[in-house]
Each structure stands twice: as structure tokens, then as C-alpha cells.
Design a protein that fits this description.
alpha/beta; Rossmann fold; 379 residues; Protein-arginine rhamnosyltransferase; 2 domains; eight-stranded mixed sheet; globular; transferase; 15 helices; five-stranded parallel sheet
């Protein structure tokens, strides 16, 4: 008697913003393989970016197998037999020939458009909506990640929160992690992970950190903001309060431990925001800047969820600093904002833990997608 073949899934990804899109797709693919034993094929148009996150990937190969899943160059897609479930990440438009093959299958695959993360209320109404292809008749379901039970939830692997808690309960875990990075950090100085986009506010923020008069250990990954930090350091050669430690580009598998080993987080984009919430550390989010400040209402929408349980004064401290950081249309004196935020850190830290617990009660994104697929196939 032969065992049933594993459920198959194709995930299509075009790399738009360096590592955010492919980071989400890789996490999803790994979770489907590791937790559901699915046969997953990831079709990507930029394997160079994936190789930065997963060093074992060879960008020159048309097809390869890594960590239990198959990776294809996008150009190979027209020759692929469609899987039982097709995930189109972020409206990336799979090749027409592939869609035609989908339409020829009986039944056709479960087709999902995985949208970008948003906290805005309209995603609750759009999550689960179905669109029919005008020529092929294929039905595509829209799945919106989000922060409420009426959305698709967030990526969260089994065991992630237990691992984070165990790491933070171990007195030596953080120091051991920094030792593996070749760093010796001052014991009493907070470790601040500074992962941001380039911003005209960076010099003023560093000025505020310096004027606050307390030591900071700043962990600086390679980003477009790095030259701005380096220029500020060159202009302040004698200051000793702020120590900046350039980090190498870490594989995705190490990113969570980097967050767990830090005390304060400045994060950017979608994937880092989600992982920062699972890390349950005080954080400031650098939402992707858009024309005409269109990103600020999206930031406010996030805080309409994240604010639940914070006192009015702590919420004001959190949102004032985060909104100022993301509002590039005005000059900002960050000194009072930073001092007020630091004053409220005990409550903000406690809130980060309770917020993580609340989010963890919702189904995770992979579970939502699996349920969608099994519903289509009657499993």
C-alpha cells in the first residue's frame, strides 16, 4: 500500500523591495514544509536576494532543493505542472502559460493572492473575497494578513514563542549570541537594533540619543541608512556614549535571535515588524515612506490595534516618537520624545508581552492558507 502523496503548493514571488517579499515567501514555504509536510515549490525572479537570506541557495541554478523545498527560477514556470495550491504573492502575476495549465486541470488548483500586511479596517472586508479570471474562469481568493481574527493573521511557526521566551529567560543567551557575532557589549547599556530606511531624521535622532546622556549599544545592519550613521559618527569623534557596531547581513534563520538579544528595536517594512512583535520588545516601526505622506494613516491604523491595553500616557509617548520618526515633512527635536519614550519603557515592555500573547490566540497565516486549500480539495 502506497502512502498518499503530499499536498503540493507553488509559491510565486517577484522581488520588489530587496528582502521583504522573498523573506515572507521563504518563511511561508518553510512552515508549509516543516509543519504540514507539503511539497512546496518556490518560483522566484531574483535568487540573488534569496541567497542573502539563505546562504545555501545557488543563484545560478535553474532548479534546486534546499531545506526540504524546491526552488525554481521564475523563467522555468511555463514548463511547470501546476500544484494543488498556487500562492501568488503580492499580485505578482504568474505567467499566462502557467495559468492556462491551471485552467486545464480538474479540479483547478486553489489559487490565492497573498496580499501585503495592513492594519487598515478595509482589509477585514476584503479578506476572503473571490475574483474570477475574465478569460480562464479561474477563481482567485484574496488573503490579507492582519492583526484581527477577521484577517489572515500573521506568520508564526510552532514553537517560535516558546523559543523566544526560553532565550530571554536565559541570563547568558544574549551575551552568547553577541559573542558569536564577535561583539563584547557594555553590560548596563541597552542594546538597540537599528534597522531602518534612509531618513533625513537620522542625525537629529542620534543627537537626541547623545543628549539623553545614557550609553547605548547600537547594532547596525547594512542598510541605506548606514552611511548617514557613519557620517554622524565622523562628526562626533570624541563622544563615547553611543557605540555603533556594524553587523554583517545575517541569514534569516538568525534574525529572530538577533531581535531576542536586543533590548530596543527600530524595524522597517513588513517581515521585521511581525518578527519584532513576536520578539515582544519595545519597538519603533519605520513604515515604508510613500508620496504625500500616505504611509502615516497606515501607521495610525497599526496603533489602533497595538494600543489596546496601553495607558494614555504610554500610548502618547509611543505614538509621538513613532509618528515623528516617520513624518519626514517636518523638522523634529527628538530629545523630549526619546526621553518620554524611555521613561515609559517598563509599561511598553510589559505591553509588548501582553500584545504578543493576544496575537498568538489568532490562527497563524500558514494555518489559514492550509485551511483554504483543504476546503477547496475537500480534505
Amino acid at each position: 500500500m502506497h502512502a498518499a502523496a503530499p499536498f503540493s503548493c507553488d509559491i510565486f514571488c517577484r522581488v520588489i523591495d530587496n528582502y521583504g517579499d522573498i523573506g515572507v515567501c521563504w518563511r511561508l514555504a518553510r512552515q508549509l514544509v516543516d509543519e504540514y509536510q507539503w511539497a512546496v515549490r518556490l518560483l522566484v525572479d531574483d535568487l540573488q536576494s534569496l541567497a542573502k537570506l539563505v546562504p545555501t541557495v545557488d543563484p545560478t541554478l535553474a532548479q534546486q532543493r534546499i531545506a526540504g523545498l524546491v526552488i525554481w527560477q521564475w523563467e522555468q514556470a511555463p514548463s511547470a505542472t501546476p500544484a494543488q495550491m498556487v500562492v501568488e504573492a503580492f499580485a505578482c502575476d504568474p505567467p499566462v502559460t502557467y495559468l492556462q495549465r491551471m485552467a486545464q486541470q480538474t479540479p483547478p488548483p486553489a489559487w490565492v493572492n497573498l496580499e501585503y500586511l495592513s492594519a487598515e479596517t478595509w482589509v477585514e472586508d476584503c479578506h476572503g473575497l473571490v475574483s474570477r479570471h475574465p478569460q480562464l474562469g479561474l477563481e482567485k481568493v484574496f488573503v490579507f494578513p492582519g492583526f484581527s481574527p477577521r484577517t489572515g493573521g500573521l506568520l508564526r511557526e510552532k514553537g517560535l514563542l516558546a523559543a523566544a521566551s526560553a532565550f530571554n529567560l536565559s541570563p547568558a543567551a544574549a551575551d552568547q549570541f553577541w559573542t558569536t557575532q564577535g561583539l563584547t557589549l557594555r553590560a548596563q547599556a541597552p542594546r538597540l537594533f537599528f534597522f531602518t530606511y534612509a531618513s533625513p531624521h537620522i542625525p537629529a535622532l542620534l543627537d537626541a540619543w547623545l543628549s539623553h546622556g545614557q550609553a547605548l549599544e547600537i547594532l547596525l545592519p547594512p542598510t541605506p541608512a548606514t552611511p548617514q550613521v557613519e557620517a554622524w559618527l565622523a562628526a562626533h569623534p570624541n563622544q563615547t556614549l553611543l557605540r555603533v557596531h556594524p553587523l554583517p547581513f545575517l541569514p534569516q534563520a538568525e534574525f529572530d535571535r538577533l531581535l531576542w538579544a536586543s533590548d530596543l528595536l527600530f524595524v522597517r517594512g513588513e517581515d521585521s515588524l511581525v518578527r519584532a512583535q513576536w520578539a515582544a520588545k519595545p519597538m519603533i516601526w519605520h513604515i515604508y515612506p510613500q508620496a504625500e505622506q500616505a504611509h502615516l494613516p497606515k501607521l495610525a491604523a497599526f496603533y489602533s490595534h497595538y494600543s489596546q491595553g496601553l495607558t494614555a500616557s504610554a500610548l502618547a509617548a509611543q505614538t509621538a516618537l513613532n509618528q515623528a520618526w516617520c513624518d519626514t515633512n517636518r523638522a523634529v527635536d527628538f530629545a523630549p520624545l526619546w526621553a518620554n519614550w524611555r521613561q515609559h519603557l517598563p509599561e511598553i515592555q510589559s505591553h509588548a508581552l501582553s500584545w504578543r500573547a493576544e496575537l498568538s490566540q489568532q490562527p497563524d497565516l500558514a494555518t489559514v492558507l492550509v485551511s483554504q486549500a483543504y476546503k477547496k480539495w475537500g480534505q
